[in-house]
């Protein structure tokens, strides 16, 4: 056999690019690029429209700077509203309210979601697990306005006596210290409960699918070594699904941070910073504040609202960046191999 023949046989043939592969590759590349382009367009729009909020004396708007000052004074009693730094004091309570309500929702939703996902995948009979999975998916499809109406009409009145009891018996905790307990029950705690119910199906559904991806051999090996079902879950399922659970939790947190109508309908906000959960004065959220003030906002006010949207955009990107960093640290786990 000649050297030329051997070289020809050792060289793998080039793959033939079929029209379907080329079309699918082009569509996939275009779709991925389109997502990045939309994200960049939103980012630059927020910067372009929101920069005027930092300059009360901007000349390219129709409304005078006094309207801008009055808009800020309505939400925060500022001594010198003409200073550009006052926007920070305006958006700070809103950012705090967004993060605070979302964290409260996560604290309530995550343990329940993980417990329900474990029950569906490892404890419930097959028919019951199928029915529960269908109910969880149905909860995710309910519009946020329905949750808001339910929270405002039903939940707020139902939990208000419980808030009175907390104020009388647990007022030594800063979360329940309140000279005036809310008479309507429309507090940040009620809004957090509604948010927890809204993000529960998202976290549960994703976590359930992650648990089902655990290698069967790992589970059977743990049981064969004498482990109980809970020990098998603790040693095989939870370590394998840890990064996926973090991703599902962060997706739920992103949903809670951006929720608008449910929070706006349930929460009776006063634009302050407080960790009290049962008082009549509560911090608002950025998304709810934009929804409530959008209809009556002048041009300068609209720039302020868009600037607060830019802050929410930055918070969401930060949350997703932290989630990606946590998930990246768990890539060394090779449970699927």
What does this entry look like structurally?
This protein is mainly alpha-helical. The chain has one domain: MetI-like fold (Orthogonal Bundle). It is built from 12 helices and no strands. It has helices at 3-10, 19-50, 65-75, 86-123, 126-140, 144-169, 188-212, 216-224, 229-258, 261-266, 286-293, 299-329. α4 crosses α7 (188-212). The chain starts with a helix and ends in an 8-residue tail after the last helix. Keywords: Cell membrane, Membrane, Phosphate transport, Transmembrane, Transmembrane helix, Transport. Belongs to the binding-protein-dependent transport system permease family. CysTW subfamily. It is a multi-pass membrane protein. It comes from Pseudoclavibacter albus.
In whole angstroms, how far apart are the ends?
42 Å
How many domains in all? 1
Report the count of strand segments.
0
Judged by helices, strands and strand pairing, the structural class is mainly alpha
Estimated helix fraction = over 70%
Mean pLDDT: 79
Low-confidence stretches: 58-84, 333-337
Function: Part of the binding-protein-dependent transport system for phosphate; probably responsible for the translocation of the substrate across the membrane.
InterPro entries: MetI-like, MetI-like_sf, Phosphate_PstC, Phosphate_Transport_Permease
Subcellular location: Cell membrane
Membrane topology: Multi-pass membrane protein
């Amino acid at each position: 056999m000649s050297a030329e023949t051997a070289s020809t046989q050792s060289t793998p043939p080039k793959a033939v690019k079929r029209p379907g592969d080329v079309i699918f590759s082009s569509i996939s590349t275009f779709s991925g690029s389109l997502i990045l382009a939309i994200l960049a367009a939103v980012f630059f729009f927020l910067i372009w429209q929101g920069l005027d909020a930092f300059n009360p004396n901007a000349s390219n708007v129709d409304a005078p700077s006094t309207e801008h000052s009055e808009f800020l004074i309505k939400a925060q009693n500022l001594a010198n509203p003409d200073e550009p730094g006052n926007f920070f004091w305006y958006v700070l309570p809103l950012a705090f309210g967004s993060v605070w309500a979302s964290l409260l929702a996560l604290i309530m939703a995550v343990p329940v979601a993980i417990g329900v996902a474990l029950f569906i995948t490892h404890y419930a009979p097959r028919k019951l697990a199928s029915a529960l999975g269908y109910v969880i998916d149905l909860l995710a499809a309910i519009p946020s306005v329905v949750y808001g109406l339910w929270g405002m009409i039903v939940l707020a009145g139902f939990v208000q006596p419980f808030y009175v009891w907390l104020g009388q018996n647990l007022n030594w905790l800063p979360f329940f210290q309140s000279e005036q307990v809310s008479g309507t029950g429309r507090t940040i705690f009620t809004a957090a409960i509604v948010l927890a119910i809204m993000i529960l199906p998202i976290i549960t559904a994703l976590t359930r699918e992650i648990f089902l991806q655990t290698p069967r051999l790992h589970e059977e090996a743990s049981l064969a070594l004498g482990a109980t079902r809970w020990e098998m879950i603790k040693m095989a399922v939870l370590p394998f699904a840890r990064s996926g659970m973090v991703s599902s939790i962060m997706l739920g947190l992103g949903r809670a941070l951006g929720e608008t109508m449910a929070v706006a309908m349930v929460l009776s906000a006063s634009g302050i910073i407080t960790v009290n959960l049962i008082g009549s004065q509560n911090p608002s959220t950025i998304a709810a504040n934009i929804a409530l003030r959008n209809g009556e906002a002048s041009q300068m006010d609209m720039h302020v609202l868009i600037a607060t949207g830019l802050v929410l955009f930055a918070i969401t990107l930060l949350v997703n960046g932290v989630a990606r960093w946590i998930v990246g640290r768990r890539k060394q786990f090779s449970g699927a191999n």
